[in-house]
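Hi P.,

Sorry for the delay on this. The queue was packed all week, but I finally got your sequence through. Input first:
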Amino acid sequence: MQDTVASIARHLTETQPGWHLAPARLGKPGSQADVVVPCPDFCAEDHVADWHNHAIDLDHWGSREADWDIDSITAAGERLLSLSARLYLDPNNSDPRLRGANVRMDDETTDVFLTPEMAEQAADSLIAFAGQLRHLARQARAFNASTPQQPRTWQSLTREDLASRPIAYLLKAFGVGVVETDVDTVALHGEPGSMELHVLPDVPQCLREDLARRALLAWFDARVGGDV
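Then the structure:
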């Protein structure tokens, strides 16, 4: 049986450029058999590790190279939107378009299968969308530059805000003035609205910003609570 399958597979690959023979495992646990099957050259699947019960269920996937995702201001580091695309071929599908190489896209919710022509149209649309997105970014940046955002009152700021927002924004929200003086360590004095941050005159700006943030966080933890 295995010799027959191998013979048929070898004949198919010899008559179809772009294909090669690859090992595959078929059957149910306890009654599996390793055979060789025709496999398109773009296929990156391990048909032995990713085995199937029946040969008709075997399909082929390209490597994962086209991936895109993005997070949000309100959810930094989280993948809120995502797209991926890879080659796909199902040699036993009833739709002849899926029996040839096509492009499968998904957003982790919906799968779409594209002919090469449809994939090119999608690529053109994405390029146009990218241009529109860049235009929106320029508009947002220009607006922010001409109309600086007013900081929220310090009462509405969370500890996460103190850890992540620009230090200039935080100093304005708390009404902090920087005073250069001889001190043993950076110290924050006063109450929000009329606070003073005492620092040594020769402290570099980058270190001064880091120390100012630490002082605000320490004040927050002591007065409001670090779990807020």
